[in-house]
Amino acid sequence: MQLRKQQYIHPLRICLSSHEEDSQELNINQPDVITALGEKKTLNLKLKLLMVEDNKICQAIQKLILESFGCSVDIAGSGEKALTMFSNGYDVIILDVKLPGINGIEVSKAIRKLGHGKKIPIIGLTSENTEMHKECLAAGYNQVIAKPANHAQLAKILQTYYKEKQRDNEQLLLSRPVKGTI
């Protein structure tokens, strides 16, 4: 899918306007945003992601960017919805910290209490300060990225989890006995 600059710049400005102090520092022609959107053929991460974000415009933009990395993306618009969708077998969860209702901190804690939720990587997105980052990590997030997300940084993090998934799959295959052997 090829995008024209005007197809994503205006929604991106709207999305970032909710984080006024961040949007003033953002260069909208930042190469890593444009590069990330153009890397669909070079990145093929094949990760199944659950993105938890309440802002509809941010959902659309982030989904587009994550799909450009070769990921499949399901969206939960609230913490409650994320908890109902979690059992669908995701490779990574991208979780906004500030959500209406059950916030990201509580969602992370709830997921970590579930047996199959202890290992799944959770990447937090927040516009909050360093103290909030520490609180997120204590609640079970693996990493926290400042909003607006640096898409090159996000791609690098997802590549790491993709490589871990590949290693785990290879180890699983090697640990299975081959038919006809002792």
Structure description:
The protein is built from eight helices and five strands. The protein has a single domain (5-175), classed as Rossmann fold (3-Layer(aba) Sandwich). It has helices at residues 5-17, 20-25, 31-38, 56-68, 79-85, 104-113, 130-138, 151-175; strands at residues 48-52, 72-76, 92-96, 122-126, 143-146. The termini are far apart. The protein has a five-stranded parallel beta sheet, with helices on both faces.
CATH superfamily descriptor: Response regulator
> What fraction strand?
5-15%
Q: What profile does the largest beta sheet have?
A: 5 strands, parallel
**Helix content range:** 40-55%
What is the N-to-C order of secondary-structure elements (H for helix, E for strand)?
HHHEHEHEHEHEH
State the CATH architecture: 3-Layer(aba) Sandwich
Distance between the termini: 50 Å
Fold-level CATH name: Rossmann fold
Q: What's the arrangement of strands in the largest beta sheet?
A: 2-1-3-4-5
Could you say how many structural domains there are in total? 1
